[in-house]
Structures are given as C-alpha cells and as structure tokens.
C-alpha cells in the first residue's frame, strides 16, 4: 500500500491492540498507540507511542488529547477502540471526534447497549435471544427481594466491566452461594460505586462457551463470519480465556445476527454465548463492539480483521475474507498450565489429556520472534503475580485481556 494512507490510532487495549498494531504495520500503515504506559502495545516495535509529559494517562487524558490541539497532527487518522474506556469516549464524544478522525459508524445508542450488560440482556430478550435469568439491582431493597426468591448460586456482574476491573482485577464477576453472601457482596460493590446486575449462574465447564465475530454493513448484513470455542479459562468459569479453538458454528451465527440486527449494529462486534446444560440452549453472556482478545487467533487462521476494518473505514474495497482455518488453537502457556492444575485438582482432566491437547500446534497470542519484547514483559509481570500469590495465598490474576 502507498505510504500516504491515513494513519491509525489505537486507543486502549492489550493483546487485541498489539494484534491490530502488528497487522497494520505489516502493511506499511503508520500506527500510533494511545494507552497506559505499562501496556503491552507500548513494548512493540510495530507502532509509535503517545506519552503524556505529566505521566498521567487513562481515559480522561486520552479524550483530552484526541479532542485537543495536541492531536492535530493526526487529523484524518482512523480511530480504533480496543477497550471499554475507549468505547465510553466514543459514546461521549463520538460526534466531535468524527469531525477530526475517521470513526466507525456504530451509533452511540448501540455502543451503549453493547457496553452496559443490563442493556445487552434486555435487548437480547426483546430480540428473542435466550439469556440467563437476570435481575436489576440498584438498592438493598432489590437485594432483599432476591435473597428471598432467587435460586443460589447467583453471580453479581458489573454493568461496565472496566469499572469492576479497577476494584477486582480481571475476575469477571462475584459469586454468591447464599443470601448473606449476596447482601455482603452487593454492599461491597455499592461502596465502590460499581453498578451491578444479578444473574443466575449458568453451570457447566468453560468449553460450553463460544463466540461469533463479524462486521455488519449499512444494510445489516454480515461481511464475514468468525466463530471460536473456549477450551479453558483461568480461574475456572470466571477468568480470562487461556485456551481456545476456531470452529464453524451456524447455530451461534444465527443467534448473533438476530441480536445484532435488533440493536441496529453497523460495524464490528463479538458476542459470547454459553450453552446451558440444564436446557441445552445457547444463552448470551456479553457483547463487545470492538476488537477483542482472540484477534491474534483470527489473524493466524486467515482472517485479517484489523486490516479489513481499516480498509472499510478508509473507503477501500477490503480484500476477500477467505474461509478461515477450522480447528486452529491458541493458548496462553502459563495461564493454561495454572488452569490445568486447577482442573486436575477437581478431577476434571488428566495430565495425559492436557499434554495431548497442548502439544498440538498452538497460536501464542503475544509472542513473535521478530518482536519479542511484549511477551517478555508479559511473562515477567506474570511471574510477579505468581510470587505475590505464593506470598499471600491468593489466586493469581489472569493476564490483562481486552
């Protein structure tokens, strides 16, 4: 491609941001990263990093930079959100940013619906897409009603995941086994100003979870399909994905498109479902209107989603999205080892079964021989978390995912 193509500005993210930077950099596109100073994308040679002189970063600083004069040299660049904070910026200031940058065409109302979990579940139910049972929880009065009537266990999920992560790390939810735990956990979340929704816990192992990614055009038609299944998470049932595999899944595609069309999606999104073993139905868990963590798996399987989105937004005719490789696996080696040890303690996997699984060809999401620093930094950070776990007796938090 000619070198005068519009630059790309990647806002937020971690593994996904790194994959976007590498994809676009290979095509000779100038890539800039706007992120936390300790993010993995700030360790790659595939992009230029935007630092703040006062050392303060975060969503407020990113938004001021994008709207202010300091970013005037990037006017006309493609803005690519890679985490929920970046989505919030687009919800608040998308119209102003669209005057300066090339921004995806998703409406603010649709972005908000996909970001807020309670809105997601309500929209899915209105679309006729199965959901777990859920209950709005805005006060102790709501909780007292649930304590009397809910079937335990239940989980407490944040409406906005990024506010939850600042308080609880990369755990996806809090689990209450009884009414007293529900009251205590709700009070704790409320004290931290975290808005939540209470949901029934969908039982079953992590391999019942799968996701569908596409880009919806202006007529509400999908421009490609990509489905994958989770193999393991760490910690089990509540942490980040540490092993997964590409699939072909018409059932999840049908449900996802039904939901996307109901909310009026125009652009990129990934929706996750889990099959409920109690009734056999796929039920929506969450949806992200942006690039997500399994992006390196999609790229390795033959779908350059980052390049496709860039071409689409800059008015180019995207290259053909050829059929991707089915059965390709990815893994995070250290986290997956921890997941194996946890599952083996529970009697859910043998050492031989795990070894047969991991010795298959695997995509390592952050590792590249030609760009080794991001994975080296990630590994060092994980060792520090493991050391902290050994000292405190707490579970190691999974790596940052987006």
List the defining traits of the structure above:
single chain; 402 residues; alpha/beta; Rossmann fold; 7-stranded mixed β-sheet; 39% helix; globular
Query: How would you write the strand order of the largest sheet?
Result: 13-12-9-10-11-14-15
Oligomer: single chain
Structural class: alpha/beta
**CATH-level-2 architecture of the largest domain:** 2-Layer Sandwich
CATH superfamily of the largest domain: ATP-grasp fold, B domain
Q: What count of helical segments does DSSP give?
A: 14
Total discrete domains: 3
Uncertain regions spanning at least 5 consecutive residues: none
Radius of gyration: 21 Å
Question: What is the average of the pLDDT values?
Answer: 92
Question: What's the main sheet like?
Answer: 7 strands, mixed
CATH topology of the largest domain: D-amino Acid Aminotransferase, Chain A, domain 1
Helix fraction, binned, reads 25-40%
Number of strands: 15
- Beta-strand share of residues: 15-25%
Order of helices and strands: EHEEHEHHHEHEHEHEEEEHEEHHEHHEH
CATH class of the largest domain: Alpha Beta
